[in-house]
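Input record (one chain):
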Amino acid sequence: MARKITVNLVNCKHFSTAINVLPTEIENVTIEKQFDQTIGQNNTIRPYSDVPGPRGLPFIGNSWRFAPLIGQYKIQDLDKVMIALNNQYGKIAKVGGLIGHPDLLFVFDGDEIRKVFKREEILPHRPSMPSLKHYKSVLRQDFFGDNMGLIGVHGEKWDNFRAQVQHVMLQPSTAKKYVSPLNDITDDFMQRVHEMKDLNHELPDDFLHELYKWALESIGRVALDTRLGCVSKHGNPESKRIIEAINTFFWTVAEVELRMPVWRFYKTKAYKSYIAALDSFRELCMKHINIAMEKLDLNSTIKNEENIPIVERILRKTHNPKIAAVLALDLILVGTSVAASSTIYQLSKNQDKQQNLFKEIKACLPSKNTAFTVDMLEKMPYLKACIKETLRMYPVVIGNGRNLQSDAVIFGYHVPKGTHVIFPHLVVSNSKNYFQDPEKFVPERWLKRGEIAESSSCPYSGQPIHPFVSLPFGYGRRTCIGRRLAEVELQILLSKLFRKYQVEYNYEKLTYKVNPTYIPEQRLKFKLIERDC
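The corresponding structure, as predicted from the sequence alone:
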């Protein structure tokens, strides 16, 4: 019989009882009363050693499972690892003995995820990107100093940086200000889409990279207040350099961040390329921030702060161009997601849902050339539901997590400080425990019964959704700071694309890999059929 221990966790002084939750973070759901952190005296708690999980080998632990040639899994198969752990061990599983990494504790239960989040520490630590942290705090410490940004950073430095930028980034009016310039960028991209089509009206094999370019151009306009030229037909030397850097970054980041961290001892080719890509981003950001700084008169008065660009607002608030540059760098690193590709794919495979969306879009955009305006953001509930459903099925990041800064009790186990607790949203949000027919693309499940005509008779509409099983933008104080802007970008692109084209996909079912975001493995050979009206 397993040995049991008794832990007294009455006084959880390391945890905050005030959770900072954005008003829009979880919609249409009533959050239950905050989890009571007091466990109570003399409760019997099982030791950490009892947590189920795969056994490691002597000296090398479980690292061999991800090793080339001899391992069970490729590093791109972390989604399959999570699914296998859930199938074999149930709602909680531990993977220990990972050389260079803390233990990973996977929690596959919405209620338990809620409890961990609700006892959030004042300065939550998220297990992410140690090589990026090394880049900021060691390799380029002379540049970053105390302003290390939000990605790969924790503790007081993270908190201080966020305090300087969150007021600007999280206001709803900030995203709305960029609707018009993002509409212009999307119009330029739609012209490129038209030019890309082959004789069969299909898009090229590298369309995923074209979506990266569109996302990069959009981020550049927001974070640097400039057009980079990424969606123009011929581009320019700077845009070609940054596109090459983003391609290099996505090729190397999984190799550097997810494999055994040999970069700490030996600088591999992938690591050197990774650092070079980060340097390219940093230099690009600093160049354009300096240009903005030269144009800015900090002594002038502003009648309405909400009408000026993000860059100018940050510069006026901090008088420090590096803060604006570091924010732009972080937005570039996390903003070139592939949520658009997955949404297009699902709508192309579900023509009835695409037709529902087209009707909604056409009511707002009477012609193919109608500009997307701010008031349309709240007039397309079905479009928003399509995006939510896509992110449920294919979250851009397959799991969230926290690095415990003190001991905790999870699922009745005593979990020690330093453990990485992983919330595998890909698995949980595709589970029959939480969603009826989770394999089906059903945007109506995110709508109230009768909210629109399509949801009036849909059996999926109005069903309660657990608020902690699908969190594509994170939770609490570490919620993605660019969420509002990302949603606006997606709404504009999808409305423009499906207003002009009926989209089909006539090839094999897409499979996905972790790289480190969740991306399709196959070519995105979408067929575009221009609509008559």
